[in-house]
Specification:
two-stranded antiparallel sheet, 266 residues, SH3 type barrels, 3 domains
């Protein structure tokens, strides 16, 4: 007769994980207090650092066998619990994927938002992300490159901290991490090119506006070079490079050339 073993549910896995995690924290505190570098522990009698495998202190000759045996026992428990926690995490993700597959997308979204703790996290995380992207977009409009990148890096760190501390990490899988990484790389690379993706802040050096009725855009940074195209007063030109009093610019229709600085204004 074959007896089928019942697979623990996600809630049972969470309870077991919480219990083991509390014990792991206790053991980590014990290790931090009693184990120093190179697997050494202070002698309870003279505080001399000795190996945790020692049975007698070489400094004061005290019998410390019971003390070091207790340390080794607790460290063994910590190692075993670490393995169990890893297995429980994998089991949780499997249960979560199986339960998710049994429900439609809208059912999963409803359950995601109906969680009271999730709603509390959303009240903090969503406004923070919105303000962050509004800020970096505003900085790019002002053309402040160094401030833009410093703000972007600082905002990314804050966003990571919020996600790490919030309940979102219960719902974030390795696939979502990979997707976010790929999306971030695409946005950064596209922003660094002369033709960024729609909606992404312009990463070019700056823009200038034509202040004369007509501005000649030439093939090279000399007054006797051939005219590539012309721009009218008020036209915005994207700055690609600068050489002395000349700007290398790009027009709205994608043509590039050099324009003299007196014909445009920042």
């Amino acid at each position: 007769m074959v007896v089928e073993t019942q697979i623990p549910t996600r809630q049972e896995t969470i309870r077991e994980y919480t219990s083991l995690n509390a014990e792991a924290k206790r053991l980590l505190d014990f290790k931090k207090k009693n184990v120093k570098k190179h697997n050494q522990t202070p002698c309870p009698e003279c505080a001399t650092l000795i190996q945790i495998n020692a049975n007698k202190c070489p400094h004061c000759s005290s019998d410390i066998g019971d003390h070091t045996a207790k340390i080794r026992e607790e460290l063994g428990k910590l190692k075993g619990i670490t393995v169990e926690l890893h297995e429980l995490h994998n089991r949780y993700m499997e249960c979560h994927e199986e339960e998710s597959a049994a429900h439609s997308f809208w059912e999963r979204a409803k359950g995601f938002i109906s969680d009271p703790r999730m709603r509390e996290d959303l009240k903090i995380v969503l406004p923070a992300f919105l303000l962050f992207f509004v800020l970096i977009a505003a900085l790019r409009v002002m053309g402040n490159g160094p401030l833009f990148w410093s703000t972007t890096l600082a905002g990314g760190f804050i966003a990571y901290y919020l996600l790490k501390k919030s309940n979102f990490r219960r719902y974030v899988t390795i696939d979502l991490y990979r997707a976010a990484l790929v999306l971030g790389l695409i946005l950064v690379i596209s922003g660094a090119t002369t033709r960024p993706l729609p909606g992404w802040p312009d990463m070019s050096l700056n823009t200038v506006e034509v202040q004369r009725s007509v501005a000649n855009i030439r093939e090279s940074a000399t007054t006797n070079s051939q005219v590539v195209t012309t721009a009218n007063q008020g036209d915005k030109l994207k700055v690609l490079d600068r050489q002395g009093a000349w700007y290398k610019v790009q027009t709205k229709d994608g043509q590039t050339g050099w324009v003299y600085s007196s014909l445009v204004k920042d």
